[in-house]
Amino acid sequence: NNRFGLPWQTTPRLSPYRFSDTFAVVPGNVASICNGFEGDYYNWICVENDISFIETEYQTIVLRDKFIECWKSTNEPKFAYISFQAAHAPFNEPPVELLPFLPDPTGKTANRVQFEKLVISIDTALAQMLSVVDIDNTYIVIVGDNGTPPNAIGPGQVSTKVKTSPYEGGINVPFIIYGPGIVPGVSDSLVSVVDILPTLSALLSMPSNAIDGLSLMPILENLNVTVHDHIFASDDGDRAVVQSRYKLIRLQDVEKFFDLSVDPQENNPINPLNMDPVIVAALRDAMQTYINRGL
Q: How far apart are CA 54 and CA 42, in angstroms?
């Protein structure tokens, strides 16, 4: 079991996480200030198995190479958890070898163009990493942790409705699962990152002690079914309960209702008095349940 690139917020310790090795780990993000040191992708604090040092090779390349080396040398069964630092700021220019093409700069800020270069570099590195994986005998989960950072928004985006917000631009992220027995295709069903543990447990026929989350096995076997009637997201007191069509956002103590089927950009809040009272009650009850849990 190996972990790569995970941002540590405190002194890293292996034993609580039951990982045999950790590689290319970063305390915080590459630009986080740690004991007076502020880095970037070419000059960053690297932690490997509790030993820290300054690394000057581009972080994504180190992450890629460490994974490939370790995956090749580890006997089955094996597991790896990988956290890319890109595309966090600073938006350093990636190496040419990770940029097989360049983003179209039309109508974009300089930060946005550099951000997209970082995303391209991740995609390129990930493809190289997967080239050493037996993808016909491995379950692969790829997920984003949040939306676009406010300082790198693209055309049509609003900085207050992206990362750290409960709007779709902050919480609607890519979620890909690939592996044996999984039906290929695209599903519009509601899912959450808390579903990963119970889903992997089901795929591997292992018991799950997940408190939150549901197995996505029904969706992986039939793209037309769903397992959630709503999902929940929160950040620093701002919360969202999302149904397949309707959504309730609570910004501290202010409620906003949206119909995502006609207003996916969440520009036009609905007066709850003009909604089906059953739907309003369901959204409010779900929201209060999570608030009562301290979430």
A: 10
DSSP 92: P
Which letter does DSSP use for residue 76 in this model?
Answer: S
Q: Strands, DSSP E only, in the chain?
A: 2-4, 7-8, 21-23, 26-27, 33-34, 37-38, 44-48, 51-55, 80-82, 140-143, 175-178, 231-235, 238-242, 246-251, 254-259
Query: For residues 155 and 115, what is the distance between their CA atoms, to the nearest angstrom?
Result: 13
The DSSP secondary structure of 161-201, one letter per residue, reads GSTTSSSHHHH---EEEE-TTPPPS-------GGGHHHHHH
**Structure token digits, residue 244:** 């397949």
Taking CA atoms, 101 is separated from 89, 116, 117, 129, in Å, by 21, 11, 9, 19
Stated pTM of the model: 0.88
Angle of helix 59-73 versus helix 110-130 axis, rounded to 10: 10
How much is the pLDDT for 15? 41
Q: What is the mean pLDDT of residues 200-206?
A: 92
Using a 10 angstrom Cβ sphere, with 0-12 exposed, 13-18 middle and 19 or more buried, the burial of residue 256 is middle
For residue 151, the Cα-to-chain-centroid distance in whole angstroms is 18
Q: How does strand 175-178 pair with strand 21-23?
A: unpaired
Rounded to 5 degrees, φ, ψ at 9 are -95, -20
More confident residue, 14 or 276: 276
> What does DSSP assign to residue 14?
S
